[in-house]
């Protein structure tokens, strides 16, 4: 059984990518790039619809191909696309670009988030599964997800008003989340 610490890293750092993809791109576009607020809200709506519908598909896919493979593909894609996504948005601030970036990034974060949640719940025995998952999830969201937008915004200030700075935070958190991957095996269901 993997350590609680590696489970928190797995979920917590993935939470940064989810919060940046779901919420921050829209907020960032309205605040810094002066894209109309209606498009920022539309990007968040798109993110929600993609996450909801994608979760159903990815859950089924992870049962067939394995959880770890999807998590690795997702993390690598987010890592590679973090900087280009912010660069493209900063240099071509248009609602269509925002929606395209949100579509791509949310698709990849969903691809990794669903199997990560399944892995975490499957690590706990049946009698404490709900409690274990709730604790790990709450700690991951509270610590990493809750502060994602704050650190993304502060990174702009820390890097001398470089509007692509949130990409370094997103990429760094994604890279850190990958450190947990060697510490778990790809199981679909643990024996009860």
TrEMBL record:
The reply on keyword Magnesium is no
- Recorded superkingdom: Bacteria
What compartments host this protein?
A: Cell membrane
Q: Which GO terms describe its molecular function?
A: symporter activity
Outline the extent of the Major facilitator superfamily (MFS) profile domain: 1-189
InterPro entries associated with the record: H+-coupled_symporters, MFS, MFS_dom, MFS_trans_sf, Sugar_transporter_CS
GO cellular component terms given for this protein: plasma membrane
Write out the transmembrane intervals. 9-26, 38-58, 70-90, 96-118, 130-152, 167-184
Q: Looking at the keywords, is Nuclease present? A: no
> What's the protein's topology in the membrane?
Multi-pass membrane protein
Family matches, as SUPFAM superfamilies = MFS general substrate transporter (SSF103473)
Keywords from the UniProt entry: Cell membrane, Membrane, Symport, Transmembrane, Transmembrane helix, Transport
Xref: PANTHER family: ALPHA-KETOGLUTARATE PERMEASE, CITRATE-PROTON SYMPORTER
By sequence similarity, the record places it as follows: Belongs to the major facilitator superfamily. Metabolite:H+ Symporter (MHS) family (TC 2.A.1.6) family.
Full protein name = MFS transporter
Q: What is the native source organism of this protein? A: Budvicia aquatica
């Amino acid at each position: 059984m993997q350590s609680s610490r590696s489970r928190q890293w797995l979920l917590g750092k993935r939470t940064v990518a989810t919060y940046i993809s779901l919420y921050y791109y829209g907020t960032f576009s309205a605040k810094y790039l002066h894209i109309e607020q209606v498009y920022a809200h539309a990007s968040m709506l798109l993110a929600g619809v993609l996450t909801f519908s994608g979760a159903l598909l990815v859950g089924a896919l992870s049962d067939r191909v394995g959880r770890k493979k999807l998590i690795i593909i997702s993390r690598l894609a987010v890592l590679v696309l973090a900087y280009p996504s912010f660069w493209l948005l900063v240099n071509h601030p248009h609602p269509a670009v925002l929606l395209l970036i949100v579509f791509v990034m949310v698709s990849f974060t969903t691809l990794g988030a669903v199997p990560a949640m399944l892995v975490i719940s499957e690590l706990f025995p049946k009698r404490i599964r709900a409690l274990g998952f709730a604790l790990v999830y709450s700690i991951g969201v509270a610590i990493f997800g809750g502060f994602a937008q704050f650190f993304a915004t502060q990174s702009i200030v820390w890097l001398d008003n470089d509007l692509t700075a949130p990409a370094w935070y997103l990429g760094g958190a994604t890279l850190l989340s990958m450190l947990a991957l060697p510490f778990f095996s790809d199981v679909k269901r643990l024996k009860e």
